[in-house]
Amino acid sequence: MPEQMNPPQTQDHQPGRETEMHPKPDYMPKFPGNGRLKGKVAIITGGDSGIGRACAVLFAREGAEVALVYLEETEDAVITAEAVKAEGKEALLLRGDVGDKTFCDTVIGQVIEQFGQLDVLVNNAAEQHMQTELTDITEEQLRQTFETNFFGYMYLTQAALPHLKEGASIVNTTSVTAYRGSPTLVDYASTKGAIVAFTRSLSGQLAEKGIRVNGVAPGPIWTPLIPASFPADKVAEFGATQPLKRPGQPNEVATSHLFLACDESSYMTGQVLHPNGGEIIGG
């Protein structure tokens, strides 16, 4: 029997709220900033909580102004914005559905109006719905999962590209499930596989423009998506089967996003990093 990692708990809405979790995820950066993103402007989708929140605070500590795109979790988003401001940087909150192309166009327009530039795009928003049988995945669920997890990445990147200059970076959050699959998250894992292909394909298209495109494939990370997706007993065991015998924390993933967003990874494009607790991916 896997060791219990966190108290059993569930939430009845996607993509979940960090304010309702216990214990709270650890999102604060572990180290002082070093100006890695000084003078930069970053957009982070799913920026209200989880990995998105950890990225927002870390990016701010490293000098970036941050636009936080979120679906409806305003309380979480405000907490994240305050954490960004505590790092001395500005946070722009943008509420809406990234699966809506018009909204994505609006996001880019508002960021350019507010900050006058865009340097880093972190596509991170996601939802997932556990189903043990393929036939139980409804057309509505399939469409919604792809619209949030993949179409949103495509729409926002399309809108951002005219404003990205040489040296800009796109970082896409995929998942360990893209590489090993997930019997109970077939549609979610499929979107994450599409994100890997999108990352590799777009990186080749944009290389000559000096715009790098990379990805991060987290393993089991303690975020609101977990109690919002699984039964309480599964939540209690979440992450226990990884080699490190625990789920990861958002601040253990955001450092991968930062590395790919800043010039420290200047010779990397079309690549995916794997903060997953020790699971070997790709041999």
N- to C-terminal separation? 27 Å
Strand order of the largest sheet: 3-2-1-4-5-6-7
The number of domains:
1
Give the overall silhouette: globular
How many beta-strand runs? Answer: 7
% residues in beta strands = 5-15%
Helix content: 25-40%
Q: What is the CA-based Rg, rounded?
A: 17 Å
CATH architecture: 3-Layer(aba) Sandwich
* SSE string: EHEHEHEHEHHEHHE
* Count of individual helical segments: 8
Uncertain stretches: none
Pfam families: adh_short_C2 (PF13561)
GO molecular function, one term: oxidoreductase activity, acting on CH-OH group of donors
Keywords: Oxidoreductase
Family: Belongs to the short-chain dehydrogenases/reductases (SDR) family.
Can you describe this structure in just a few lines?
The chain has 283 residues and is of the alpha/beta class. It is built from eight helices and seven strands, in the order E-H-E-H-E-H-E-H-E-H-H-E-H-H-E.
Helix/strand layout:
Layout: E1 41-45, H1 50-61, E2 65-70, H2 74-86, E3 91-95, H3 101-115, E4 120-123, H4 139-160, E5 169-173, H5 177-180, H6 186-206, E6 212-216, H7 232-237, H8 254-261, E7 272-273
